[in-house]
Amino acid sequence: MKKIGVFVCWCGSNIAATVDVKAVVEACRKEPNVVFAEDYQYMCSEIGQNKMADAIRDYKLDGVVICSCSPRMHEATFRKTAEKAGLNPYMIEVANIREQCSWIHKDVEEGTEKAIVLARTAIAKVLLNAPLQAGESKVTKRALVIGGGIAGIQSALDIADAGFEVDIVEKKPSIGGKMSQLDKTFPTLDCSACILTPKMVDVSAHDKINIFAYSEVEAVSGFVGNFTAKIRKKARYVDEAKCTGCRACMDKCPSKKSLNEFNAGLDNRPAIYIPFAQAVPNKATIDPTACIKLKTGKCGICSKVCTAGAINYEQKDEIIEREYGAIVVATGYNIINLDKFNELGYSDCKDVITSLEFERLTNAAGPTKGHLICPSDGREPQKIVFVQCVGSRGLRPCDKQYCSKICCMYTAKHAMLLREKHPETEVYVFYIDVRTPGKNYDEFYRRAVEQYGVHYIKGQVGKVIEKDGHLEVQASDLLADEQLHIDADLVVLAAAIEADDTARKIGTMLTASMDTNDFFTEAHAKLKPVESPTAGIFLSGMCQGPKDIPDTVAQAGAAAVKVIGLLSKDTLKGNACVASPNENMCNGCSLCATVCPYGAISYVDKEFRIPGGVQVRRVSQVNQAICQGCGACTVACMSGAMDLRGFTNKEIMAEVESICK
């Protein structure tokens, strides 16, 4: 007869406030095979773990049930304690009486009754549990970083400095991301390029880092320590090995009608281009949608002027397949599409611009060489209105309900720089709330108001219309309780930010969790803020949610540390809870192999002895090193041949029956 021990945790008052833990202990003592039951205030503490280890040894327990918080929190802790005490770690069951019980019930009687049911369920399962042993798999000592912005750059540098090879995949022709488009950074007003460019150069020069610019991840398979990725290196129609970045082709290209993406569409670029002066790699790229030669077969001027012979109109996309031990997601962000905010005039008025467009207009390397002008006619603006929270914190279908976090600070930055360069300019900022949490952030905002004389008005802009060569801004001042009409020369919209449009596709490839806004979800908001629930996938920067540059760099470093810890191991312990087929029941239908997201299931022809001879049948096989125990195959298997160790059909039915008692 198996001997079961039960421990009920108070979790301080988290559980004990709505669950009578003493009553749960008494109910458990009456269950079959339970030889020991006890409650303690904090089972996850050292004292609580010692109590568990002592009981395992003293009562020679065959299984243990801990009624506590979610197994996501401390199941690994309890398993280690059991293993040290001589009990197989997979003979531990955690009954979640906090998240699934005490936190959702206010009535003690109801909470206690449900806690007893959950404890009884765990006891029924542990009685059928069998000791399991986890296998091992080798670790590929190379990391993949998806995204070449400041987050991806910082993660790649930190991993490479630890001695591991890193591949950066960036969809644009150069690394650098959004930070490369900025002029100054808050709160220190450092030159953005002065901070970023040295890091970009370090990445290019690092012998452990490979840059796949103008490339995209096509597919990812495998599991932690052994991922396989297919990377599509898009045709630049330029031989990177030969191109010297001299820009002669750009000067001579006759097709100069394409909008310059780097300058936020405020000017044009040639069909063959290098995005910006500090681009890494500093190689030309031909836009096939704009190139006359590629569209019509005529022209070819860039090939004639290229002294290095780097132009190759026949170049094709290349698929590169590589193996990785860990993957860092750093896909970044975009600003939202403002076409649906017609009341603010963005689609109709050239002098209504976004904050990123304002950055490019004030940047010395921008389309106007740093001279701030009205895009409509080139005049210098005398009165500028900044509108915050455009598309953020709203309830309309076109709004994002979350705060974009960085808008208050960069608007203050823009207003201060504007007043410093053009002290005669009147600057108004309309805001809902000013949110400036961060070191020296509130002081930065106060400088804009007190030192630079920026007019902050608490209220919302209702409409912007073009009238008599100016922009009439209709707004409300909530503190003064009055309606305002301001004749502005330029209106700057602090648009909400959203996850990059490739995030959902990448998340699907990686089987990583995402929220409804397409931001990647961390494994635990407090304890695992840079880890995805999918093992081996780590999050860096804005792919996980809105944050500023300091927070992005900090998270990128944290993700790198996690990757280094993973890659420093030669082998990883696999998941003991893996699928296991019953060959006698398998009919070879292949449904399990079809639904397996890890490619862990294959089929072989096998001989079976039957009355009167031998029969050859096609049956499934599971590669236990690859299987991650997701259970998809057990659901799909129509013959019932596939089972999951640790979560067998018998164990699950025993849990159901215990609930129905």
Keywords, separated by commas or semicolons:
alpha/beta; globular; FAD/NAD(P)-binding domain; Rossmann fold; 661 residues
Describe the protein.
The protein has 661 residues and is an alpha/beta fold. It folds into 5 domains: 4-128, 3-Layer(aba) Sandwich (Rossmann fold); 142-234 and 317-332 and 500-567, FAD/NAD(P)-binding domain (3-Layer(bba) Sandwich), CATH 3.50.50.60; 248-305, no CATH class; 334-498, FAD/NAD(P)-binding domain (3-Layer(bba) Sandwich); 579-645, Alpha-Beta Plaits. The chain contains 17 helices and 34 strands. Helix 2 (46-58) crosses helix 3 (71-84), helix 4 runs antiparallel to helix 17 and helix 5 (150-161) packs across helix 6 (192-205). 44% of the residues are buried. The mean pLDDT is 94.
Broad shape: globular
CATH architecture of the largest domain: 3-Layer(bba) Sandwich
Regarding CATH, which class of the largest domain?
Answer: Alpha Beta
Low-confidence segments, given as residue ranges, are none
Instruction: Report the span from N to C terminus.
Output: 22 Å
Mean pLDDT: 94
According to DSSP, the number of beta strands is 34
Strand order within the widest sheet? 10-7-6-18-29
Helix tally equals 17
Tally of distinct domains: 5
Radius of gyration: 31 Å
CATH topology of the largest domain: FAD/NAD(P)-binding domain
Question: Approximately what portion of the residues adopt beta-strand conformation?
Answer: 25-35%
